[in-house]
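Q: Hi! First time doing this. I have a protein sequence and I read that you can turn it into a structure. Is that right? Here it is:
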Amino acid sequence: MANQDDVANKQKAIQNRQDQRDASMQKGDAGNGGGAAQTGVDQPAGDFPAQHIAKPGIEAQLELKPKFMAEGYKGSGKLAGQVAIVTGGDSGIGRAVAVLFAREGADVAILYLNEHEDAAETQRCIEAEGQRCVTIAGDVKDMAFCQQAVDQVVAKWGRLDVLVNNAAFQEHAESLLDLDEDRFDETMRTNIYGYFHMAKACLPYLKRGAAIVNTGSVTGLKGSGKLLDYSTTKGAIHAFTMSLAANLLDKGIRVNAVAPGPVWTPLNPADQSADKIAKFGQGTTYGRPAQPEELSPAYVYLASNVCSGYVTGVVLPITGVVGE
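A: Yes, that's right. Below is the predicted 3D structure, encoded as structure tokens:
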């Protein structure tokens, strides 16, 4: 079984090589300086802290903390008595989803690489909602880890109802020539093999009414010139979602995906340079990135069979752009 600290160090090495290429090019993009739209709870807008953090990305290190608590969201037992697994649940979208699942009555297992401080904070937040939480560190590229983690959760709590595939690796590249096979493989095996491994490990335990929710991306819908490998995996995730939905429908198991646009999570400051991250999300129609708490209710909707029992094979775009 792979050592998760070694994996994190490998990802940092990929990041460091790209940072060196970026520094040698000495160029940046001007962001969209337009005003930001607010159609719900007011969210942070304007320039964000110009901060670049080391992979895999620690939320506790961010100068501007992502908003994930969704204080105005009131639970109503949509997942009462259920058990959920969230990969990449230590921070970002995964943390926000885990908190709302707990608020809806689910016990939540958090799978993560090696961001122990973030995972402990997520566990604290879940338990504050009155639900149980277990955190399990490991690498989703490793099928043996995924199987062991799933077996551990079911042995502990006796059931499994929802899988959220959310763990991801992202590192930009100016050119296809920057992508060697080792780097491409890290992205592919984390982002799509990891989803495949987790779905396969969970499937024997899922019963009629269970749900799988995958995190896709706007880059999987439209592509991204600077995220060639990442976009490729997200397009694969969308196709995997639709195909698995068709495959599992007769078993009464639904499979859907959420395709976010720019969201303020550790993933992006751990990818983009400090000057570019200051303008993060300003190119959307909203003129700002989403906060994780603006995405998490969609995962509740897709996870809960009382909300979306007639919905499967859908890729739900939440991109901050009109018409997308």
